[in-house]
Amino acid sequence: MMHIKKYLLKCLHRLQKGPGYTYKELLVWYCDNTNTHGPKRIICEGPKKKAMWFVLTLLFTSLVCWQWGVFIRTYLSWEVSVSLSIGFKAMDFPAVTICNTSPFQYSKVKHLLKDLDELMEAVLERILGPELSHVNTTRALNLTIWNHVPLVFINEQNPHHPVVLDLFEDNYSGSASSTPAPGRTCSAHGCKVAMKLRPGSSPRPQEPLLPPQCSHNGTTCNFRNFSSATQAVTEWYALQATNIFAQVPNQELVAMGYSAEQLILACLFGAEACTYRNFTPIFHPDYGNCYIFNWGMKEKALPSANPGAEFGLKLILDVGQEDYVPFLTSTAGARLMLHEQMSYPFIKEEGIFAMSGMETSIGVLVDKLERKGEPYSQCTVNGSDVPIRNLYSDYNTTYSIQACIRSCFQDHMIRNCSCGHYLYPLPRGEKYCNNQEFPDWAYCYSALRMSLAQRETCIDVCKESCNDTQYKMTISMAVWPSESSEDWIFHVLSEERDQSPNITLNRKGIIKLNIYFQEYNYRTIEESAANNIVWLLSNLGGQFGFWMGGSVLCLIEFAEIIIDFVWITIIKLVALAKSLRRRRAQACYDGPPPTVAELVEAHTNFGFQPDTATHGPDAGPHPHEQTPPIPGTPPPNYDSLRLQPLDVTESDNEGDAI
User: Fold this and answer.
1) Among 61, 196, 243, 478, which residue's CB has the most CB atoms within a 10 Å radius?
2) Is the pLDDT at 415 greater than 50, yes or no?
3) Can you give the pLDDT at residue 30?
4) What CATH number has the domain spanning 86-107+244-529?
5) Are 508 and 332 in contact (CB under 8 A)?
6) Which residues pair with residue 86 across a beta bridge?
7) CA 175 to CA 190: how far, in whole Å?
């Protein structure tokens, strides 16, 4: 260790021999030798010009530092620029998902919806003719469903004291003013129809956005208002149907939907024939059985040979409109969506409708989006860095922000309402919401769906995909089949599907689709760094050279002077430490330090004991005081002919020449 210490000490001194051993010498040396223009003039000029050049150098140095801060802050903002490029190549045909707008066949779910349908008919009669239908509609109804989430009339003729009336009660149900109003009647013309939601004892969302509006018999209730009775009864029926279907096993739900053989009458891809067997079935809670062409799960994606309608996908569908659920589905037609292979089709949010009795042609253009990852944007490659469990991963599909947001909502639904919603995948070990096990789930779900805090939380947590493909569609429609050809077309299709000589199809259910690439040009929208490291260095160097005439070598010189300052500081600290250690060693003696003769005698005569008497005027006998022994140190090696700096001599009292 001693040898290493001496070696490092010598290195420090040798490094410091050029500029000097004081801060002043070092500063003068830097100003006299630097390539930066200003410091040289400070040394060379007279007093007045020296002051002027000092002020100018300080001013321009401040400008350079300010400009550097601006450029570094701009670089660290991680801004991106977007470039658009157009390519031309053969592309894979997109995956095509088609669904019937009615999720189930009414003939197969009628037994499940019997009580709900009767209740719905009574509600409509009450809304349309309250005086005539009120007495007879409540006797044979099963009001178990109604009692969980009823519909009410709200009379707002007096905005400060609105009156709330139950649809199936002749008397007062509740009002904000707590003033009874017996005998009051109302209709959709004079009142608003609202959904009455009652909270129970299960956990609440942290921020319910439905404020209490009434209190009757100690029960707090909330109202969800609608501008139209049509919207109110449709939302109410869908909510009650969700409660019913949530208790039915998934296999039975699939059996009650439209099969692929019923829905897909004809298929042609390019010049090759295809059938319903070329479609992959998937159950969607909103649309029932859906079917995906070219999903790419089991086989390779199909390429498109050429652009144009003759090289695309041609389909003839029969939606069977006569078997629609009357109160659940008010739209007739098909729902379709184009998406990437191995991606889940969120057809409710991103799909389009195709009308019955029409031929719909869809020309497709492709946009490929390539986003920069961190730190430029919060995008993800595969969703592995997103803290939300992807409930759609059971389908072996790729990550998407829609999957993340819906999984996040289901997670909040389970944590706040103790059950999962029927429209979203369910984690293992959890149950779907229903009125029997979770009586207040409708209130909790409505409050959570309207919660701004919940939406912001999911948006902040979920990330966009770094690579995405979007399909831009150009849609055109025409009547199909024409009046002159519908007879033979319906005859042929009826014979092929039902083996019947009679016509079993009609214009209300038939749909023709043509899906094709308009052209093979595709657009790539790519993000790139707006300010890269080359931009940063160029601007830093330009500002430094313009204001101070400096370069990279000047920066190296400045770094060198900083290192020299550090070396001088270390040398002074080492010298100070040794000086303090020497003073502590001298403090061990009671009297003056030993003379040279005493040191020589102690070195040559090991039995020698120095005089312990105190030489001061106040000296007294101390019989019990012992003087520490003087080590047998050899006599000092005088080196009076060598000249060394004071710091060097102090820092090396071992006698080493440096």
Assistant:
1) 196
2) yes
3) 75
4) 2.60.470.10
5) yes
6) 523
7) 17
Tokens describing residue 565: 């300052």
Cα 508 from chain centroid (whole Å): 44
Could you tell me the residue ranges of all domains in the chain? 12-79+537-580, 86-107+244-529
Strands 192-197 and 219-225: antiparallel
What's the pLDDT at 177? Answer: 35
Mean of pLDDT values over 346-373: 93
Q: What is the pTM assigned to this prediction?
A: 0.73
In the block, tokens 């007096």 appear at 158
What's the distance, CA 185 to chain centroid? Answer: 51
Cβ-proximal residues to 432 (8 Å cutoff; 6+ apart), any chain: 246, 247, 419, 420, 421, 422, 426
Residues 421-471: pLDDT tens digits? Answer: 999 999 988 999 998 888 888 888 988 988 888 889 999 999 999 999 999
**Across all residues in the chain, what is the average pLDDT?**
80
From residue 89, alpha-carbon distances to 182, 517, 519 in Å are 75, 12, 10
Using CA atoms, how far apart are residues 422 and 433, in angstroms rounded to an integer? 7
Q: Identify which of 335, 354, 318, 365 has the alpha carbon closest to the alpha carbon of residue 476.
A: 354
* Distance separating alpha carbons of residues 82 and 255, to the nearest angstrom: 49
Residue carrying structure tokens 């010049």: 271
Point out the least confidently predicted range of 513-517, 619-623, 634-638.
619-623
CB atoms within 10 A of CB 186: 21
Helix axes 23-33, 37-44, angle to 10 degrees: 110
Structure tokens given for 98: 């088609």
Q: Taking the C-alpha atoms of 335, 339, 341 and 343 in order, what is their torsion angle to the nearest 10 degrees?
A: -80
- Neighbouring CB atoms inside 10 A of 355's CB total 14
Residue 174, helix vs strand vs coil? strand
